[in-house]
Design a protein that fits this description.
Layout (H helix, E strand, L loop, with lengths): L1 H28 L4 H20 L6 E3 L5 E3 H4 L3 H11 L5 H13 L13 H36 L4 H15 L2 H12 L23 H39 L2 H8 L4 H19 L1 H19 L5 H11 L2 H29 L5 H5 L1
Antiparallel strand pairs: 1-2
Helix pairs in contact: 1-14, 6-9, 6-12, 6-14, 7-9, 8-9, 8-12, 9-11, 9-12, 10-11, 11-14, 12-13, 12-14, 13-14
Amino acid sequence: MGAYILRRLALIIPTLIGIMLVNFIIVQAAPGGPIEQFVAQMEGHGGGALTRAGGGGGSEVSGGDGASESRGTRGIRPELLEELEHLYGFDQPAPERFMKMLGDYATFNFGDSFYRDRSVIDLILDKMPVSISLGLWSTLIIYLISIPLGIKKAVTNGSRFDVWSSSAIVVGYAIPGFLFAFLLIVLFAGGSYFDLFPLRGLTSPDWNEMSWLQKVGDYFWHLALPVTANVIGGFATLTLLTKNSFLDEIGKQYVVTARAKGLEERQVLYGHVFRNAMLIVIASLPGVLVSLFFTSSLLIEVIFSLDGLGLLGFEAALNRDYPVLFGTLYIYTLIGLVLKLVSDITYVLVDPRIDFESREG
């Protein structure tokens, strides 16, 4: 197992490089960039004076991100554009910038944001508690609902409870999380009906003046709607996965033998079936975490104005804030790869019969 872990850890490096390279190439080819954003902002606030100052010239400038702009049409002095290119590091060839980025990221040096006047690592550490709160509580609730419900559905397979609960699960799964979030806002956050829950942030403005108990209540009060919107789509898949896994194990010979020995149904279910059936559920944990942290959290954070990693990455993509964009992508990818390795290790801890090394051989 130790050799397998070392190989998987070594495989993380080329995987990270490959993902970063693909996204780097896509960003270079995308129109618009930090320089174009800056130029557009300057023209919006004082474009007339700048145009008169640098009205000549028809040469092309590459912002280092795949977009070429006419200096004549932009009306910006060539000297200023060159200074901007040097400031953003776009005066270097793309391969050199990519290699430098990899070297810096190896030591978690993500540089500074183009627009926020802060280092990227500080921004990530500042926003991470929000995403962790949303992701962990959502995951906990999803597993607390899905596993007992899936077991109940497996035991009562074909019953009225199984049919009606399956119908509710399908409906919940069919509703996108962001659409359910809008529905919650309309119903419970002052949209059209009730104004019971806050719409922004994780804490109230008077947070520092509250007692410890009031802070706990205020924290969960703000989390109620975002977590509910996150959970509604996640528990459906896990519930059906748990049910099917238990049904598959219940039909095996060792369960028939255990029942023939006179064991109670609860002993058979939780003493024999549970351990084997939970393997596939455990294997799905990294996927659930990655989905909640890096996919669902993006839309939920934007909708509920939660200042977390999802909203940070979304704004970085809109503003072409490349250090933040690539820094968050690097963190997301690294966490996802590590979680996948943790899942494999957990497999072995739950069932020592599994041997990844022999399978690789």
